[in-house]
């Protein structure tokens, strides 16, 4: 089992960061790696079990993910990949935000566990850790920082 852990400090209050990431359907609105997204079946984007269907920008394929948990109290959501061009199986990820009370900032922690289905574990981990999670935190900080 491969595990990925990425953390960052975002120079914005946790409520502001959560307002941006909470909508399970709006990832392409703020993350440059992704484009076109919709929730299948017309369900609300915060309904547990809803499926987000979105594209990797630049013709990288389509990903379908199911929302497994969402908590406005704990500023967290968990999801799994249903179908993807990525070389992964059993992929489950979680994003959690924590308030930093001194300075009114946010710590973001994004984790994932999965099996790599090819011989390029380092490349898959880089794609998830750096190009997806790390890039997300960079973009959120630049977009929301005071």
- The value of Rg in angstroms is 15 Å
Give the N-to-C terminal Cα separation.
Answer: 39 Å
Order of adjacent strands in the largest pleated sheet:
1-7-6-5-4-3-2
Mean pLDDT: 95
Count of discrete domains: 1
What is the CATH architecture assignment? 2-Layer Sandwich
What is the CATH class?
Answer: Alpha Beta
- Tally the beta strands: 7
User: Number of helical segments?
Assistant: 3
* Binned strand content: 35-45%
Q: Mind telling me the CATH superfamily name?
A: START domain
According to CATH, what is the topology? Alpha-D-Glucose-1,6-Bisphosphate, Chain A, domain 4
Order of helices and strands: EHHEEEEEEH
Q: How would you portray this structure in words?
A:
By secondary structure, this protein is of the alpha+beta class. The chain has a single domain (2-144), classed as START domain (Alpha-D-Glucose-1,6-Bisphosphate, Chain A, domain 4). It contains three helices and seven strands; from the N terminus they run βααββββββα. It has a seven-stranded antiparallel β-sheet. The longest helix is centred in the C-terminal third of the chain and has 24 residues, at 121-144. The radius of gyration is 15 Å and the shape is globular.
What are the SSEs and their pairings?
Elements: E1 2-10, H1 14-21, H2 27-30, E2 34-39, E3 51-56, E4 61-71, E5 76-83, E6 88-100, E7 105-116, H3 121-144
Antiparallel strand pairs: 1-7, 2-3, 3-4, 4-5, 5-6, 6-7
